[in-house]
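> tool_call: predict_assembly(chains=two)
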Amino acid sequence: EIVMTQSPATLSVSPGERATLSCRASQSVRSNLAWYRQKPGQAPRLLIYGATTRATGIPARFSGSGSGTEFTLTISSLQSEDFAVYYCQQYDDWPPYTFGQGTKLEIK
Amino acid sequence: EVQLEESGGGLVQPGGSLRLSCTASGFIFSSYSMNWVRQAPGKGLEWVSYISDSSSSSTIIYYADSVKGRFTISRDKAKNSLYLQMDSLRAEDTAVYYCARGEDSYGSGTYRSWFDPWGQGTLVTVSS
């Protein structure tokens, strides 16, 4: 089973600033990585797939990078709705599909 | 609009059973693989089960080790519905259960999926 590790667990950033979230896989997942945002009390929503491709309707301030075992989600200018929990998911070697433990992005 | 709506959650005693449903609309349900993903209170996401689309004669099903032998996934093309039969429930099965459509990519002889969209979730509580 591939273990996904996200860092940091909590990130405090001011609105309008840039946020950088990391995700590491225990073995290569090539570019088979997705990112999700989960607002409080809501279901997760897909942001990025294929490590770098924005999902439909996702604004350009979200960008994904990386391949192999190291991945990054960057939010260029934080809006109020971006303060949430973010999860990465690998879909290269499955079953099982595995998620990181999440990064909580909070207002500084 | 593509939508998924879960139902069937509730309070059940340890050892009991529950059947979750997920009704799909706004897309050709039979053309997509489907998944169940759960989230224990205050915890992260855990994939539970996968069922392939209805395009081929054979159905492919997978389960997480934590539910194998206790949970059964199924789908009904005519009703645009996905199901999760949960038996021998344990306290550690307490979670919000989400259904999620699989967006399949094919490569190296296999399909792989990210999940989009997700339903709003249904809460299952296993407690005496």
